[in-house]
Write a structure and sequence with these properties.
By secondary structure, the chain is α/β, with parallel strands linked by helices. The chain has eleven helices and 14 strands. The chain is elongated. The mean pLDDT is 92.
């Protein structure tokens, strides 16, 4: 992306209006331009056929229309899940996943190229952080997948590669654009943002009083166990993170989801289920149990079905809302970071 050109797909509607006015165009052109970018999801300015040629030339000269290129798409033969590898304008690659549910099409997007959080069970963090994505690069994952399948995307989960709250400003811009009535107009209630627990940003997000769902990657029932799995726990202790979750609910009225990856012999025993129930008792929350996706860089294994159900039943008997995440895309490198790593290793050969 040219440094001196405006990333116009990351501009809010009010910013587009101000730019159009500055370029000497009539105000109604702003709505036309915005609709081309966010409703029709044009890949080039030249496709915007109802805009004057002089205006299009000025846009070409001063702005860039960020568009992602589909490198690979893998389709699960088991459940129709589609995993995409997209090339960014600078040559980096990111992953996105389309999951089809009865309630609609859900897209899981990446927020960064790589990640610096170092969680032990995640492939996307192995090579560290390259950079954060722009709001337009986050949006484009939704737009390109919607265009590819020719259907509306109704739910968006920011839970792919990267830590969304480590790219906070771009994340907020992305949410505003995604839910703008002049664009896709996806309900904030249909947007979920996942975090490993960056407490100051969790509290700042709460203060924004958005209607999105916050999902915390918990993965352990004690601070000691969390330290062995998630380096972020060195900076923000479990008690502090849970306090931020309570604050989020108090400010927004939105129930927090706890993501808990079940790893055989690590955090899946009955004693840990009891500790977890005690930990969250009294909170308005939901626990999402995730049988871990094995990656070759570690020896984590998924518990057997019997152990998973026993863990779930133990939580339910304590009055906790809990589900086991439906496994999707296991046959197509469904876990975060796997497809990107395989692609980059192939390119290095």
């Amino acid at each position: 992306m040219s440094d001196n050109k405006i990333d116009i797909r990351s501009y809010s509607f009010s910013e587009v209006k101000a730019l159009v006015e500055q370029m000497g165009e009539k105000p109604f052109r702003a709505k036309q331009l915005y609709e081309w970018m966010h409703q029709k999801q044009a890949e080039t300015f030249s496709r915007m056929t109802n805009l004057p040629k002089s205006f299009l030339a000025a846009l070409e000269e001063n702005c860039v229309l960020v568009t992602l290129k589909k490198e690979t798409v893998q389709v699960s033969s088991e459940d129709g899940t589609r995993k995409y590898l997209f090339a960014l304008p600078d040559g980096n690659v990111i992953e996105s996943v389309l999951m089809r549910y009865r309630h609609g099409n859900s897209v899981c997007i990446s927020s960064q190229v790589g990640c610096r959080m170092g969680c032990k069970f995640c492939a996307s963090t192995i090579d560290g952080l390259v950079r954060g994505l722009t709001a337009s690069e986050m949006l484009e994952q939704v737009y390109r997948i919607g265009g590819d399948i020719g259907e509306r995307i109704s739910h968006v989960v920011v839970m792919g590669s990267g830590e969304p709250l480590d790219n906070f400003d771009a994340l907020l811009k992305f949410i505003a654009l995604l839910t703008d009535e002049n664009g896709l107009n996806i309900s904030q209630r249909n947007v979920t943002v996942s975090t490993c627990g960056i407490v100051p940003r969790m509290r700042e997000l709460a203060d924004r009083k958005l209607a999105i769902t916050l999902a915390l990657s918990l993965h352990a029932s004690t601070q000691e166990k969390r330290l062995t799995l998630m380096p972020v726990a060195n900076k923000y202790g479990l008690a502090e993170v849970l306090s931020a979750c309570r604050y989020y609910f108090a400010k927004t009225g939105r129930r927090v989801t706890f993501e808990y990856s079940l790893v055989a012999g690590v955090n899946d025993c009955a004693a840990e289920a009891k500790e977890l129930a005690d930990l969250v008792r009294g909170m308005n929350c939901h626990i999402n149990l995730i049988p871990v996706n094995p990656i070759k860089e570690n020896d984590f294994r998924q518990p057997g079905r019997k152990a998973i159900l026993a863990f779930k039943n133990k939580l339910e008997s304590s009055g906790i809302h809990v589900t086991i995440r439906r496994e999707m895309g296991r046959d197509i490198d469904g876990a975060c970071g796997q497809l990107r790593r395989r692609y980059e290793r192939r390119c290095e050969q």
